[in-house]
Amino acid sequence: MKWEENVRKTEPYVAGEQPKEEGIIKLNTNECPYPPSPKVRETLENLDYEALRLYPDMNGEKLVNALAEYYHIRPGQIFAGVGSDDVLAMSFMTFFNGQTPILFPDITYSFYDVWADVFRIPYKTCPLDGDFRIKKEDYFIPNGGIVIPNPNAPTGILEDVGVLEEIVAANPDSVVIIDEAYVDFGGKSMLPLIDRYENLMVVQTFSKSRAMAGMRIGFAMANEKIIGYLKDVKFSFNSYTLDMPSILTGAAAVSDDAYFKETVGKIIRTRERAKGELAKLGFTFTDSKSNFLFASHKKVPAKEIFLALKAGNIFVRHWDRPGINNYLRITVGTDEQMNVLIGFLKKYLKEREDD
Ligand code: PMP
What we know:
The protein is 36% helix and 13% strand. The chain has helices at residues 38-45, 61-71, 83-95, 112-118, 161-170, 224-235, 244-255, 257-280, 302-311, 335-354; strands at 25-26, 78-81, 102-105, 123-126, 146-149, 176-179, 200-205, 218-221, 283-285, 292-297, 314-315, 328-331. The strands form 4 sheets. A 5-stranded mixed beta sheet has the order 2-8-7-6-5, with helices on both faces. The chain binds 4'-deoxy-4'-aminopyridoxal-5'-phosphate.
């Protein structure tokens, strides 16, 4: 068909499964196992339903102001979007418009190459070393932009802020995006450097540490000029992306720092405990500083374990991709969920050995 020649053809991102069945232990998409702050519930319960007939505030002002206060920056340094996927996609469109390839690690968040493809952005991936670490020299070449997650996904590895700063400093002619989706679980943010480097943008999300993946809230922090360019593109696309409930519940979540710290603390404690338990079963890991483990078994192929877990109604993530196909990415759930996982694996590995 002729019309098909004009279609923007693209290979879409494949998200982790969202199973509909009851009774599944879902450790496959890095959601938070705890509910959002009670202040979020309160806000939803008191939502002014009549106000929903109005368009929401285009800038998500209440949310942006809450974030500005929390992070001690100016509201003009923040851009809020519909999950960090939205913020990142908008940023790719806004900042990566050159002919020179943009750079990102070869093992990383698998949406980056999808956005590059859909927006026709040339890109080059930089191989991680044998320990899944980035090699900073790879980013000291001419490029059209850089995006690096810290901690990286799906490895969970936290890069030293000093190394990332060297990359930002060496690339004054490119926008460098640091995707900090998992930074709250033990990482160090690049945020304090946004005043020093005009080309640095930090992106974070409410989907993990603030337990609000269902609300879809993400945000970018950078200098006013960068944020201004991002807004120009967003407002040329769709002005009202963040809906009213998201703006209000997002602001409520930010106001409850005690709950946020408590939730993150629980996840970190469970993560470290699970590492110890799984190590006893023959698993090895990266030193994940995120809300997931990146684990490989010394004897049993990851795919086998993945399928066995799935058959046992425990969903984790596995990629059939070179370099990472012998790893499982296991979201850190509650202690109870992790106990079920560990119990299942103990039994499964024992039975397999006995066969
Ligand atoms: N960046 C990374 C590294 C991620 O793993 C994710 C979660 N899939 C995101 C961004 C996007 O998260 P969200 O759109 O829910 O904010």
